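Appendix B, example 12.
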Amino acid sequence: MGKIGTASNKNRTSPSNKNEQKVKASNRSKRKKAVRRNSQEDKENLSECVQKTNVPKRKREPLHPTSNISDHYPKKKRVVSTQKEFYSMSNRPIGYCLIINNFNFEGTSLGNRRGTDKDKDDLTRVFENMFFKVEVWDDLQASDMKNVIKELAERDHSQMDAFACCILSHGENGSVLGIDGKPVPIRELTQPFAECHTLVNKPKLFFIQACQGKEAQQGVWMTDGLENTREEGTFEEDSHSAASHGVPKDADFVTGIATVEHCKSFRHIKYGSIFIQELCKQLESGCHLKEDIHSILTKVNRIVSSKILLGCKQMPEVRYTLTKTLVLPMKQGS
């Protein structure tokens, strides 16, 4: 009897347990419905994504060039100064002017340079009127020319505004000759002044009357334009032939040579050389008018090149490394 009663108690279920079972069954049913609903939504979303990916891409329109890029990207305004910069020429004297005048070549195969004293005198007058302190050396051998140049380059130019050197001699391509017939490269004449600390940023002027070879320049026929001017009188050549040498291109130099390389230059036996005489004339007139050295030497080139000398032409050559505008002063009334 006791055992049977115990078994019947195990099979008996209370009302509270029945309610819990019903709640659990209801929750399971709800979860299944939610899972089925979410699965259906995922399928629909996936279908929409597939449809979107199958839509053809829109073509990119080509870029069209614009005629004025500044309309889209405005430029910054730049202030550019148009004012010229000038070398200062306020000191007196302005600077030294060295003139080397080689006349006597009797110990060589070269002839004496008749008419060179006229060039020397005119250069002395013009450069003194431009407030230079002029020093003249006559008839120097090649070694003496180098020594004079070296001594002058080692001076103190701190109270000066410029330097000038004029060399009158026979020459060959890239060199001038001492009265012993030995060449001095133009570079060896200019380089010591390029290395002079008290002439830094100051103009250094070199004017060289000498042939640069033995070739004669020929003219070219012109249909219209400047007429050639024939020079009458007795002319000689300042020439000798030898190897070529270079000319330095350091800053603040002007190197005016009577002729281009390989060619002759001409000197009148009484009135001086064509190049130096025209240089003196244009310096005197141009400096009075406050013209810059570039304009003056361009006139010299034009006038000298228009002449006919012993049936030939002469074309001066000017080399510039100036970094400012150079206007040389001239005494009033000179």
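Residues 1-11, 217-228, 240-249 have pLDDT under 50 and may be disordered. The longest strand covers residues 95-101.
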